Amino acid sequence: MKQKLYDLINKRAGLLQQAEAALGADNKSEYQSLMEQITNLNGEIQRVQDLLAEQDRQMLAAPGPTGSEAMDMIQERAAALQRGDDVTFTANEVRRALSNQTTLATGTIVQPNGAGAEIRDPVGNVVPSIVDRVRVVDMTGMGSFMEPYVITELDAKGGKVEETAGTARTASTDPTFGVAEIKPYELSVTSYVDRNIARLSPAVYYNKIFGMSMRALRRKLAELIVNGDDPGTPTFFGITNAKNKASANIFAEAALGAAIDVNTLDTLYFAYGSDEAMGAGARLLLTKASLKALGQLRGTNEKRRLLTITPDSTNPNSGTIVDGGLVLPYDLVKAVGDTKLLYGDPMNFEVGLFGDYTIRVDESVKAVERMYAILGDAFVGGNLVVDKGFVVGTIGG
Question: Per the database record, which ranges form the Phage capsid-like C-terminal domain (predicted)?
């Protein structure tokens, strides 16, 4: 069914390009014929998407293996890791882990056997929450993925009855479309852990390796989601350099002045969305330094703080900023940098998983330091799939 969806979407993308060419050549009849085909495809695509969405919802909601089945899987994978063999996690296993950060916690399946002490993570070992909020799609087996989106909609015309009667009506402005491409990018992640991890029970050992490898993947994904893999010619398109097949920007831009000030949030807030809508589900992505600068803004008379910043008690990476009657949710993302603030709905960004996530443990990389290297490899892709799905605000630009 997923292959059918990919085929339909790629077919629609081809028809859209043909329709654009026909429109440019002023071939109205061919354009109308192609648009009718696209309309019919849209209905079929929607039906397949609805079915897959329900299947995905059931898959993500379903609990993983439990009891003896879970322990057998853990024992088998732990033994493979200790031998230095590759262990693969399917795209759906990775999706479940990315969509539910609590599955990465250690200790949830611990069954100590007197094998040793826990290997503790650093203080504040938090990965950016932006990874939890974007759309993650299994694209296993695809060479690339084309996601069409609307740039401008059909424009209606009007006129006085006494003036338009018996005359040719003014033609409506035709809609325009873009195609966002998601291509596979080879992602490698590396984490290090003290070799004392080998003294843990198999269950704890496996859970620790799994948690560290997934956190490393999430941290790297957070960087890619913001900036892509290459500022100039990316394979993985980030929010700040998202382009469609015609090399046009998918993101919007806003100049925020020389420094963060009382107008910064207003500028971002009103730059997002259409001329008639504010845009729903948006969040602010910024660094800790930028959040601090916002918190230090003071009034001119009473010198009170202008903004109320409230971190999420269950997730120190997120929170809300209250500016008068305006409430802006935020996520801290180091990759944004201190000269930018991003504002938009993370669901406008799509991450594709092109196959399994392979992990192995290598004892030779840092043998002198008595460290084990956890090496992970995956093929991922990403792009914005909604026109002006994010506003990229620049400070001092």
Answer: 119-394
Distance CA 57, CA 73 (A): 24
Q: pLDDT tens-digit profile of 71-104?
A: 778 888 888 888 888 888 888 778 777 765 433 3
Q: Which residues contact 88 (CB under 8 A, 6 or more apart)?
A: 356, 357, 358, 359
Cα 378 from chain centroid (whole Å): 16
pLDDT in tens, 294-350: 999 987 776 788 899 999 888 888 999 998 778 899 999 999 999 999 999 999 999
Give the count of domains, the chain: 2
Cα–Cα distance, 20 to 177 (Å, whole number): 8
Q: Ramachandran region of residue 246, left (φ > 0), alpha (ψ -120 to 50) or beta?
A: alpha
* 22 lies in the same domain as 122: no
| C-alpha–C-alpha distance, residues 34 and 350, integer Å | 27
Q: Which domain holds residue 158?
A: 2-59+145-182
